[in-house]
Amino acid sequence: MLTQLAPGYYLHKPDAIADLGALLNASGYRKVLIISGSRSYQAAQTALESTLNHCGISWVLCRYQGECSDENALQIVQEVGTDWSVVVGVGGGKVVDLSKLVAWELRVPLITVPTLISNCAATTSNAVVYDTAGRVKESRGGKIPPQMTLVDDTLLRRSPKPYFASGLGDTLVKPYEALMGATTNTLVETAALKLAQIAADCVRDHGVEGLKAFAHETALPVITDLTDAVILMGSLVGGMGGPVLRGAIAHAFHNALTMLPEVHDTLHGEKVAYGLLVQEALLGRPSESIHELRDLLIGLELPVSWATLTGLPYLPDLSILRKLADWTLDSPLVEGRLNTIGADRVVETIREVEAY
Ligand SMILES: [Zn+2]
């Protein structure tokens, strides 16, 4: 059994970034490589530079816009060299995952500072690796997880709300997918399934209320729980339960969607939420439970149809739908789980979801 429970140090509070300099000093990390995107760095800059300067840390910033790809990670290493004691990834999922590739390449620890509440990338040991055209290549696992994560409420409360909604969608999906992968009934797997359910219940019970309050200055305490549900709990599920609990049809459908340019600008959790509807319909769940799920997704400001996902009024041509179906069924995430289901049935299901 391999569990990858990470990070060892998870600090979630207002102004958490202010602790970074002292943490780097306490760990003896003197040469710090920061990887960040333009917008994420702008959000964190004042707090970040203040703590690093105050604690006398020598650091270099590598600003990056683009995919989390092997090519981009290697390019960064070529540009900055290999003499670093730690990588600090400051950003959303793709920037943080790119930081993982760089840290693994440099063989140094990684500290993450998420700037969005959009997924569990900051705490998971996996990185979603894309090709240079922005299509998902693989979810790379089995690597050393981030060592520390600083979740700064002050910064995150100013982050864009659609990303928060997307994170809620990516968390809601966890028990639906984890239950499909559960096979062993071991104590650890049972605990992982319970964690998935607890995180999803938090989203189900408080997500709509949390989204409404998110933009207000006096945010509800429940947003703290929702933030932990998105950023920490999801990765504990995969970290305890292993790859079989990390995803199923909803994520396989998400990965297939990334192949289509018209879906490229939609957020991860938006595609996953729509993929969850397809998953549940494909598994033949009763229509009442699909309606209930659909209503919840609408309340969470997540897409429930092709039009709400893409802004395009009609489903794509049959040839594209067939490709989507083939890519979904070919995914390792559905291996052995949909043996009796063919591409025609998947296409039919996508059409059924439109009709709900
Ligand atoms: Zn996800």
Largest sheet: 6 strands, parallel
Q: What does the average pLDDT come to?
A: 92
Uncertain runs are none
- The number of domains is 2
Number of helices: 15
Name the CATH superfamily assignment of the largest domain: Dehydroquinate synthase-like - alpha domain
Would you state the CATH class of the largest domain?
Mainly Alpha
The proportion of strand residues reads 5-15%
Which ligands does the model contain, each kind named once? zinc ion
Structural class: alpha/beta
Rounded Rg = 20 Å
CATH architecture of the largest domain: Up-down Bundle
What does this molecule look like?
This protein is α/β, with parallel strands linked by helices. It has two domains: 9-159, 3-Layer(aba) Sandwich (Rossmann fold), CATH 3.40.50.1970; 163-355, Dehydroquinate synthase-like, alpha domain, CATH 1.20.1090. 53% of the residues lie in helices and 12% in strands. The chain has 15 helices and eight strands. The chain has a six-stranded parallel beta sheet, sandwiched between helices. A two-stranded antiparallel sheet has the order 6-7. The protein is globular, with a radius of gyration of 20 Å. The mean pLDDT is 92. The structure holds zinc ion.
